[in-house]
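User: Assemble these into one structure.

Assistant: Restating your components, then the assembled model:
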Amino acid sequence: MNATVEQFEFQAEARQLLDLMIHSVYSNKDSFLRELISNASDALDKLRLEAFRNKDLDVDTSDLHIVIDVDKEARTLTVRDNGIGMTRDEVVDLIGTLAKSGTARVRQQLREAETVGDADALIGQFGIGFYSVFMVADRVELLTRKAGESEATRWESSGDGTYTIASVDDAPQGTSVTLHLKPEDAENELHDYTAGWTIRSLVKKYSDFIAWPIRMDVERRSPADDEGGEDTVTVEAETLNSMKALWARSKDEVSAEEYAEFYKHIAHAWDDPLEVIAMKAEGTFEYQALLFIPSHAPFDLFTQDAHVGIQLYVRRVFIMGDCDQLLPQYLRFVKGVVDASDMSLNVSREILQQDRQVKAIRRRLTKKVLSTIADLQSERPEDYRTFWTQFGRVVKEGLLSDFDNRDALLRVCSFASTRSDEESTTLAGYVERMKDGQDQIFYATGDTREQILRSPHLEAFKAKGYEVLLLTDPVDEVWVQNVTEFDGKALQSVARGEVDLESDEEKSAHEAEREEQEKQFADLIGWLKETLGEHVKDVRLSARLTESPACLITDAFDITPALARLYRASGQEVPVTKRILELNPDHPLVTGLRRAHSERAQDPDVAETAELLYGTALLAEGGALDDPARFADLLAARLARTL
Ligand code: ADP
Ligand code: MG
């Protein structure tokens, strides 16, 4: 029946994963069945959709289903569907390799997971669905024929690093996967998957909600009738799952386990969701939504091809996955299903973009997700922390794009602050703790907490006991430009504009001293403006320094160097903006420079000291020098003279 059998090697990463699966100590070996059924169900969804879109496709979609066959003698289990099937190339591409986007990460994780003991964690982390069959089987055959094609493909592997592929002439359309089962091993949670009741209970447990019938043949023995003769045995196909769409049932009818299994199916996840959101809208636009907040961020959350988690159904019919119109980008980690009542089955992505109904659904879902996060925050702080650690960076992207929900977004955000090393704070918490007379929310941005804490900008805030938010995500640098206030309190960068931390009393007490200093330093400042004119737009005395000699400040409406770097990295042109040099009039380097300048204004050494002072201020905040080599030369020459 078939022609040549070709042998292939698994792609390296796939091979390592297979190895992991074969020697798996993963306790939940049963889940292989959920994975096979999940794939079969996806294939049936795809076929129905394809048949609907492509009227030329000559397929019978009147009885789409999944069949499970067991053979006790041969110890095989087969899961068969009459879904979309795969071409030969697709088999090589989809089964022979791992999802491309994940390979780099998988490779790294595999290198780190030296022992099989780490398998649980690893298996949980990747949607490595199909390969899970090798937890329970020594050998696996897959026979598949794509809808609309005549040639079929047989794939076979023992999970030993190679697989074979052959073309086959006659095969039913769809896919069947046959497992040659390993011996039963109850100690290692390897059950007897040829036992009808095992299969029945696994399907019930993991796959009850699957929208397609999952059938299995059962033998029914009718006892011989009164007139003697033999018992009659009939074989009947029994449907194992209820096929009830979970989103159509009310929340109190569905158990947490059922939700979790459904989540695993649609999200291709192996762990439980952090939170379930079930919604039902009636009225103008009727729809039901079942959304999940995952407990772990997927590895591709920040890549270009990050998956969007929402599937669109219309009256129980799967229409599309990755439906990016139903939630904003910054909620792309939310998984789930939206089932709309009054939409055309023919709806396309293009139509969705314009659709009023879709916009209304999107608004509602967004608000609901944000209010759910707010509830987590107030009711389940531990889970909220998990959530924020995993997804906070993504949620903050919303501060840039979603003006309507800005306040709700700001309320669910939390930030590190100078108040505590471990605990972060909400903005509301910060405002509650604000000092008498404080009317601004102070924040500092930077690469790391440590770097910000050592920056000269923070000195006066520390000395006077003001709390400062420490913002270290790249996105923070951007949103603080757009968000100017919270709860009527302005957001103020410690490294921008003027700061005023003194009370009125302190101010009047210092006024005379201040005026005196302005006079004393007027000459030096005038000269520094010229000498450093290439680097800074202004020089002034500082109210924010207590220990360092100088620091650099971004003018109130200028762009910060970090933001300029971000823009440049994304290919945009940004003009160089000069900053303001602030001097600490009490620092010996500054007073010494003033004296030196008044005595030897023409001495090139004095100008060099000014340059070094500027460079030091830049380094102290973690900035980069324009000409590091020159700075190093000047410094080395200076140091040599001190020896
Ligand atoms: P995932 O389901 O997360 O994509 P899997 O390892 O479970 O990962 O499956 C890999 C791919 O193989 C699927 O995305 C699908 O394209 C294809 N596939 C697997 N099983 C089937 C099937 N029964 N019918 C059609 N395609 C399938
Ligand atoms: Mg799968």
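The chain has four domains: 6-222+229-239, 246-388, 414-493, 507-642.
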